[in-house]
């Protein structure tokens, strides 16, 4: 199929920011009114699940947060398509099932984005083969980015029995259940935008749990966000409480005597998710001393989230104890990468230009001449800040802003915009607001110092006249380029301080430099002895892919892919209930 190779999404492009912001607001306001999950449930009355329990050994691949730039997306798709991967001295077979665990597309779910950023690369990596009688299946749950259009295009792609390269789509809802060998089940829930599990979905899983689970059933649970981590960041976040409610009431049947006795030995051994674009494994020990692996594997193609902000131990809800066991990248590498925010202007040219143009427009408003015929810039040109001129600078500035409410409005708008931008959910309370206020104030100080500098330079040192075309042109270029760069550096300094010291703004500070490396996915084997999870990671993705096929049937070749096991295989032995 034809598709366009896409770069990583530039989240600090003002146009991209505004488009995504509008989509986010609209989806939040109208999401409940356009919830297609209830419609799908009504159209599919049967509580159907997908049965793979007849196999003695089953392989399953799990990947999240894909569909961004071509290089990482295709690199991971290429690995998933291989018949086997050699890692840790073992031959790891391609998954009989591929599960996509949320955010299959970035930035927003238009069909052309799905085609260019997801379906195209995956189809090129694993073209459809009609003669293949053992074609693997693909299942997906939506993340928040898939939900921005109410799931319209997600449903077209994954619920209409279409081919996805050589993978086959099977599901007819945005959530599903798969019966696996050896009394294992994979339960994948759709939490919409706010950890919401709708009533038809609850009924769907409750009926499966009541009719199909046995006293030895083990569950792999898939969800679109790591609620245990989010609640450790934000003390007001209740997503994990709602998620635990689903596990306790729906899967375990607590509160219903008819099913609670039957389901008391059911065990959720593993919870898989993405949303945070790194690998992190917590090990949770519940009240009954059962162990559950909480694995975030959001390395399917999107920008890299930091790992150094993760807490070593969290207690999500009801006394459950979760300890961090492994991260990828390592925390030291995560810290080093965070310093890339110091060169923020290099990664976000459009944001640099936005700051520069904003400053230029605001400064033009300040040039209204006073009754005496002297403009603000002309007064500043006579001020030598380095030789006792600070008082004169303040006097000239106060007079200028007192006569120009429009400029004051733009100053306040800039300050409040940067203050509202502040991440207040990390639990650091007033320090977040203080940092945000200082950030906004420094941008205003920078703005007025820039006007003084360029006024002094152009009018005093170069001897240019204020209203000449040459001076106007030079001043415009100075404010846009130099002013934009300095403002970008201030913004980058704020992000660096926030993510390293306050340990907040993890998304804003990571999406700025759009790191393609440190990607991951899970390859899982289920046999008669155990469930074994192989976390596969690669520090660098291939960036020199070249199409050696045709435009209609692309085939890409590039450098060898260097992948490795992130940690030793995680082995969960089957334990029979006596």
How does the SSE layout of this entry go?
Blueprint: H1 14-30, H2 36-43, E1 50-51, E2 58-63, H3 70-81, E3 84-87, E4 90-93, E5 97-100, H4 111-125, E6 137-140, H5 152-158, E7 163-164, E8 167-169, E9 176-180, E10 184-188, H6 199-212, E11 218-222, H7 227-233, H8 239-251, H9 257-263, E12 267-273, E13 279-285, E14 291-297, E15 313-314, E16 321-328, H10 331-338, H11 344-347, H12 349-365, H13 376-381, H14 390-402, H15 405-421, H16 430-461, H17 469-502, H18 506-511, E17 519-526, E18 530-538, E19 546-547, E20 556-557, E21 564-565, E22 570-573
Parallel strand pairs: 1-9, 2-5, 5-6, 6-8, 10-11, 11-12, 12-14
Antiparallel strand pairs: 2-17, 3-4, 7-8, 9-10, 13-14, 13-16, 15-16, 17-18, 18-21, 18-22, 19-20
Helix pairs in contact: 3-4, 12-17, 15-16, 16-17
**Total strands:** 22
Report Rg.
28 Å
* Envelope shape: elongated
Roughly how many Å apart are the termini? Answer: 54 Å
Strand share of the residues? Answer: 15-25%
The overall average pLDDT, rounded, is 88
Parts with pLDDT < 50 across at least 5 consecutive residues:
none
Task: Label the structural class.
Answer: alpha/beta
Strand order of the largest sheet: 1-9-10-11-12-14-13-16-15
The number of helical elements comes to: 18
Largest sheet: 9 strands, mixed
- Helical percentage: 40-55%
């Amino acid at each position: 199929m034809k598709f366009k190779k896409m770069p990583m999404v530039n989240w600090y492009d003002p146009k991209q920011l505004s488009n995504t912001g509008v989509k986010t607001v609209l989806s939040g306001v109208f999401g409940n009114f356009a919830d297609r999950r209830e419609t799908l449930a009504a159209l599919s009355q049967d509580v159907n699940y997908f049965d793979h329990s007849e196999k003695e050994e089953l392989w399953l691949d799990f990947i999240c947060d894909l569909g961004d730039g071509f290089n990482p997306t295709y690199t991971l798709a290429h690995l998933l398509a291989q018949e086997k991967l050699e890692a840790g001295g073992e031959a790891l077979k391609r998954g009989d099932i591929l599960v996509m665990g949320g955010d299959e597309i970035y930035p927003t779910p238009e069909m052309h984005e799905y085609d260019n950023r997801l379906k195209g690369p995956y189809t090129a990596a694993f073209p459809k083969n009609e003669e293949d009688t053992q074609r693997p299946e693909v299942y997906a749950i939506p993340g928040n980015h898939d939900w921005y259009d109410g799931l319209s295009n997600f449903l077209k792609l994954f619920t209409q029995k279409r081919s996805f390269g050589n993978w086959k789509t099977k599901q007819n809802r945005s959530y599903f259940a798969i019966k696996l060998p050896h009394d294992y089940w994979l339960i994948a829930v759709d939490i919409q935008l706010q950890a919401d599990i709708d009533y038809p979905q609850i009924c769907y899983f409750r009926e499966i749990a009541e009719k199909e689970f046995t006293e030895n059933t083990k569950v792999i649970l898939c969800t679109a966000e790591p609620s245990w981590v989010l609640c450790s960041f934000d003390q007001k976040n209740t997503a994990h409480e709602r998620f635990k409610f689903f596990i306790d009431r729906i899967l375990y049947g607590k509160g219903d005597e008819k099913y609670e006795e039957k389901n008391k030995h059911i065990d959720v051994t593993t919870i898989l998710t993405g949303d945070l674009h790194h690998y992190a494994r917590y090990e949770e020990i519940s009240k009954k001393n059962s162990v559950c692996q909480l694995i975030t594997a959001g390395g399917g193609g999107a920008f890299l989230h930091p790992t150094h902000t993760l807490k070593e131990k969290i207690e999500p809800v009801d006394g459950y104890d979760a300890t961090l066991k492994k991260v990828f990248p390592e925390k030291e590498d995560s810290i080093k990468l965070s310093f890339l925010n110091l060169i923020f202007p290099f990664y976000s040219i459009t944001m640099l230009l936005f700051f520069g143009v904003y400053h230029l427009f605001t400064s033009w408003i300040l040039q209204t001449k006073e009754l005496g015929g002297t403009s603000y810039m002309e007064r500043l040109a006579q001020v030598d800040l380095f030789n006792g001129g600070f008082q004169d600078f303040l006097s000239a500035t106060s007079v200028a802003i007192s006569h120009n409410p429009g400029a004051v409005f733009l100053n306040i708008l800039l300050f409040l915009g940067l203050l509202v931008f502040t991440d207040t959910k990390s639990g650091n309370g007033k320090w977040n607001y203080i940092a945000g206020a200082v950030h906004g104030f420094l941008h205003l100080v920078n703005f007025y110092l820039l006007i003084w500098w360029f006024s002094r330079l152009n009018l005093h040192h170069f001897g240019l006249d204020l209203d000449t075309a040459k001076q106007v042109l030079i001043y415009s270029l100075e404010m846009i380029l130099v002013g934009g760069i300095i403002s970008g550096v201030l913004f980058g300094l704020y992000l660096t301080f926030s993510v390293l010291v306050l340990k907040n703004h993890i998304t804003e500070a990571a999406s700025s430099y759009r790191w393609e490396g440190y990607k991951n996915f899970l390859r899982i084997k289920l046999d008669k002895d155990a469930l074994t999870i192989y976390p596969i990671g690669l520090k660098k993705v291939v960036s020199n892919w070249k199409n050696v096929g045709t435009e209609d049937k692309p085939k890409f070749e590039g450098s060898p892919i260097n992948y490795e096991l992130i940690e030793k295989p995680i082995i969960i032995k089957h334990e029979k209930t006596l």
